[in-house]
Amino acid sequence: MFASVKRAFQGNRQRGQERITASSRIHTIVRQLNAGHELLCARVPGCERPANTAIVDIKEQRGVFYLDELNNENAHRALLLSRQLRIDCRLQGMALRFTTTLLNIENDAGLALYEMALPKLITRVQRRDNFRLRLTPGLVVPVTIPDLEGETVKGEAFDLSATGIGAFLHTRNSPDCGKVLSDVTLSLPRNRPMKANLEIRFARQNAPQHMLRIGARFIDLEPGQERQIARFLAEQQRKRRRYEPR
């Protein structure tokens, strides 16, 4: 049992991993996650379904930070028993992973506030071989999801790579981290629309604009689809280099 939990927390080793152990760098990363209100995917031993949360405060002198209440009641109960969880998230285009221990639970206006120990290790995965294109306002890539929590949702991509996509969607629904969305239509300029399956890596509501921001990875793209995306990215990269100041 303990071996399986350890494997679940560690995950598979990937190329391009960086192990961050310096406390100053760890504190900086946690501060950035807090300042950016980044959505975190939390996995708790004993609960198969992941939960979403966010960092609401950090007390570096005490070596703790505070997480908002998990949005999954089963995950909340499992955390009370195991007092351990693993965080998966993204920051500045890079995937982060760390484990942390529950120290205390406080109550804030009826919601649980978890006091967690600052991690001793953060694993950062850099995928430099996958060029990520930040889309400019004039470059529109429409996205259509046929079934997101029971509704058809439209939106636009704000970044794109050979492995995944970031998009703003016109919906108030929020899918769970790890949920797979099927038959998503992506319309690249001057290309035929393509359909792909996406796995949600993060999802966060933008309340003032009533929009959902997601980050997702492609699942089982066909070779022709991979080439289509690669050609589009290469073309845009060439255009940007052409107009860069010399």
The biggest sheet, with number of strands, parallel, antiparallel or mixed sense and barrel status, is: 9 strands, antiparallel
Order of helices and strands: HEHEEEEHEEEEEEEEEEEH
What form results from the Cα inertia axes?
Answer: globular
- Count of discrete domains: 2
User: What is the radius of gyration?
Assistant: 19 Å
Going by CATH, the homologous superfamily of the largest domain would be Electron Transport, Fmn-binding Protein, Chain A
Count of distinct strands: 16
CATH C-level label of the largest domain: Mainly Beta
Helix content: 10-25%
Q: Determine the strand fraction and express it as a percent band.
A: 35-45%
End-to-end distance, in Å? 59 Å
Label the structural class. Answer: alpha+beta
Structural topology:
Blueprint: H1 2-10, E1 17-20, H2 23-35, E2 40-43, E3 51-53, E4 55-59, E5 64-68, H3 73-82, E6 84-91, E7 94-108, E8 111-117, E9 122-125, E10 133-134, E11 142-148, E12 151-160, E13 164-169, E14 180-186, E15 194-206, E16 211-219, H4 223-243
Antiparallel strand pairs: 1-9, 2-3, 2-6, 4-5, 5-8, 6-7, 7-8, 7-9, 10-12, 11-12, 11-14, 12-13, 13-16, 14-15, 15-16
Structure characteristics:
246 residues; alpha+beta; Thrombin, subunit H; 2 domains; 9-stranded antiparallel beta sheet
Structure description:
- This protein has 246 residues and is an alpha+beta fold.
- The chain has two domains: 2-125, Electron Transport, Fmn-binding Protein, Chain A (Pnp Oxidase, Chain A); 133-243, Thrombin, subunit H (Beta Barrel).
- It is built from four helices and 16 strands.
- It has helices at 2-10, 23-35, 73-82, 223-243, and strands at residues 17-20, 40-43, 51-53, 55-59, 64-68, 84-91, 94-108, 111-117, 122-125, 133-134, 142-148, 151-160, 164-169, 180-186, 194-206, 211-219.
- The strands form two sheets. Strands 1, 2, 3, 4, 5, 6, 7, 8 and 9 form a nine-stranded antiparallel sheet that branches.
- A hairpin with a 7-residue loop joins strand 14 (180-186) and strand 15 (194-206).
- The longest helix is centred in the C-terminal third of the chain and has 21 residues, at 223-243.
- The radius of gyration is 19 Å and the shape is globular.
- The termini are far apart.
- The model is unreliable at 1-13 (pLDDT under 50).
